[in-house]
Amino acid sequence: MGKKLKALAGSLTENQLALTVKDSAQQIWLAGLGAFAKAQEEGGKVFDALVKEGETIQARTRKMTDEKIAVVAGRAAGTWDRLEQVFEDRVARALGSLGVPSKKDIDKLSKRVVELTAVVQGLTEGKAAPKPAAKPAVKAAAKPAAKPAVKSVAKPAVKAVEPNVAPSVTPADVLKNIAKTNS
Q1: How many other CB atoms are found less than 10 A from the CB of residue 113?
Q2: How many CB atoms lie within 10 A of CB 17?
Q3: CA atoms of 133 and 166, how far apart (whole Å)
């Protein structure tokens, strides 16, 4: 390498060559220092610009991610609802095959029992035998007491005949009867 430099320098003396190399090295050093100073000045600005750009990109990606999550969550909720409905249907079918009445059946029977109870009460109240009226005591006092003592035979009091009243029926009784008929 030294030979090449000497060949290039040609007519320059070694002292002049050393000065030229020294000047070139000095200029390179100063250019490096200038670049470093420039980078320091501009670096703060560039750093701030990069931070702003990063915040913008992060906001965009967060928005897109939230939208995708919402879509996936909506699909998952729909799938979960369908799965829950399938499960409820299968359990209802299994209970039905075992003879266990559904809530709908029990509600229907309860309503019917209430209706029949009202009808039975209406019928029993309409056919009830009226109780005989008590004889007024005034007639007994108006009779003269001059007659000799006559033994009076007391007639047995007539009991009021109460109509047959159907016992009250509860939904539990109806369910027991249904279970007995299904067995």
Answers
A1: 16
A2: 16
A3: 27
